[in-house]
Prior knowledge:
Elements: E1 23-27, E2 32-39, H1 43-47, E3 53-59, E4 68-73, H2 74-80, E5 82-86, H3 88-94
Antiparallel strand pairs: 1-2, 1-5, 2-3, 3-4
Amino acid sequence: MKGEIKDMPNPFGKTVDVEHPYAIYADDRFDWEYKILKTYQQRDKETNNPHARWKVAVKTPFTFGSYEIGDDYCLNILLHSGLIEATDEWKKVYGN
């Protein structure tokens, strides 16, 4: 069908460096910081998938000041942390 989103590529599907993440989220209650390095699905697909995940670099009190890279559920990050910094494209898709 004309104008369907499913034919568009994922704008955040390419892994970026920790120094240049798509977005940074923080949970100040527990001193956690997430740098978003990649999404595996487009936003409209994530909304209906409770297991949708992002590739992240995360820094916590348990990582002793360094970042560990892995996957986390995007819902977990969005529900428990706030957006600190993001690219303009990220803000357009995920909001401020």
